[in-house]
Amino acid sequence: MYWIDDFISLIFPRICACCGNSLWRHEEIICQFCEVHLPATHFHMDPDNPVARTFWGRVRVEAATACYYFNKGSRVQRMVHQLKYKGRKDIGVYLGTRYGYVLRSVPPYCTADAIIPVPLHRKKYMQRGYNQSEQFAIGLAGGMQVPVNRSLLVRTMSTESQTRKSRFSRYQNVKEMFAVTDPEAWRGRHLLLVDDVVTTGATLESCIQALSGIAGVKISVVCIATAML
Length: 229
Prior knowledge:
It is a single chain. The model is unreliable at about 1-10 (pLDDT under 50). It contains nine helices and six strands; from the N terminus they run H-H-H-E-H-H-E-H-H-E-H-E-E-H-E. The longest helix is centred in the middle third of the chain and has 15 residues, at about 90-105. The protein is an alpha/beta fold and about 230 residues long. It has a single domain (about 40-225), classed as 3-Layer(aba) Sandwich (Rossmann fold), CATH 3.40.50. The chain is about 35% helix and about 15% strand. The chain has a four-stranded parallel β-sheet, with helices on both faces. It has a two-stranded antiparallel sheet with strand order 3-4.
């Protein structure tokens, strides 16, 4: 019944989240050309990668990675923008699922007991209607067969946008903005903290500081993309 799909696509066109071109029938979310040309980092294979190094001397993490490089005007920026501001939750789930299939066989990520999305403040969540990091977490959970925990880490205060802030300003903006709700239940566990884009790492650092109050906890970080080159 391909003609039905073709008719529907005339009314609700399926377009690539990266380039905006129409998708072929066999393509999903991202066209094949963009799939091939997305700048993968392969950081999960390198323990000393730039994302991991940004936390050295600041907070302790078992490992840290990001799937893609993020540059202004790039396919990745367009894709993340669609996810974050245009209601394209499916992009986050799609990317998380794909990367989850990779990480489920890569230590130490594969030993995670739960996936923790960086939370949005209630007001921002109500404005946007969803948490983009949570959508990525849902996809990772499916690929890795590890549960998502949405309640352990909470944002206690709303903050200004981080987009145009310096590294120090970003840190001050999110300092002590997160809290842990049930630390005893997660004693000695390995938590996979996930976010959309890591730039200075200030938000993630604040989350890690809060989670580090859990006795014996191990924390790893996974992001969709990184602006660190």
